[in-house]
Amino acid sequence: MSDFWDPHGSLHRMLWIGGAQWAGKTTVSELMARQFGLTVYHYDYHDARGHQDRRVARRLALGEAVGDPAPDEVWLRRTPREMADGVLAGFPTRFEWVLDDLRALTTGRPAIAEGWGLRPELVAPLLDDPRRMVVLVPTEEFRQHQLRTVPRAARLHTTTSDPVRAHRNRVARDRLVAQDAAERAREAGIRVIEVDGGRDARGVAALVAEQFGPYLAEVAA
User: Fold this and answer.
1) Interacting residues of 120 by C-beta distance below 8 A, sequence separation 6+
2) Range 2-24 average pLDDT
3) How far apart are the C-alpha atoms of 201 and 85, rounded to whole Å?
4) What is the pTM for the complete model shown?
5) Which of 3.30.420.10, 3.20.20.150, 3.40.50.300, 3.20.20.70 would CATH assign to domain 10-220?
6) How far apart are CA 152 and CA 35, in angstroms?
């Protein structure tokens, strides 16, 4: 592990589930939390709510507009590639806020951090063992299944002048971000699990538990 400030040892004990949107990261982490009695840190919740003040403060410090861009600017006036590049460029700063949150934890057993912003290239320098992380990505068929069957996956949750194209752009952006996560994980020697629907959530959780086996054995001991 690199020389990261870790006052309570929480980063050293963390298990990481990164990857793509709609791959089941949250469900898997919660199943494992109940099975093994672990604490889970949900990236999406903190990123959308707990970090908003930090986001505003950073924009002020950089002399940027405090408010979010108009929905059409975000979802219609950029290509999916430009959208993906923007998301990827923002992850390192957002990850620093995550590390601040995790440093505040004291845990006598492993804990799980899950979310799409837990990028393998950002997490890898913290790892003393690549088995501490797994990256979940959906196959294209499973992504389409999620879009059909998960209501929040099929909605953009904002109003644009062209909702159909905005949604299509969001899906294409997420596909590019997922591909990048898988590529970066493989470069770092971190396991990628492709979620294809052949296993239910418990089955995927079992694969992740196998990956984390040496560290979950501490819990069972």
Assistant:
1) 18, 133, 135, 181, 184, 185, 187, 188, 190
2) 89
3) 30
4) 0.92
5) 3.40.50.300
6) 26
Q: Where are the domains of the chain?
A: 10-220
Confidence band, pLDDT 50/70/90 cuts, at residue 1: very low
User: SS in 3 state form for the chain?
Assistant: CCCCCCCCCHHHHEEEEEECCCCCHHHHHHHHHHHHCCEEEEHHHHHHHHCHHHHHHHHHHCCCCCCCCCHHHHHCCCCHHHHHHHHHHHHHHHHHHHHHHHHCCCCCCCEEEECCCCCHHHHHHHCCCHHHEEEEEECHHHHHHHHHHCHHHCCCCCCCCCHHHHHHHHHHHHHHHHHHHHHHHHHCCCEEEEECCCCCHHHHHHHHHHHCHHHHHHHHC
User: pLDDT, tens digit, for every residue of 148-196?
Assistant: 998 888 788 899 999 999 999 999 999 999 999 999 999 999 999 999 9
Using an 8 Å Cβ cutoff, are 193 and 136 in contact? yes
State the DSSP code for 67: S
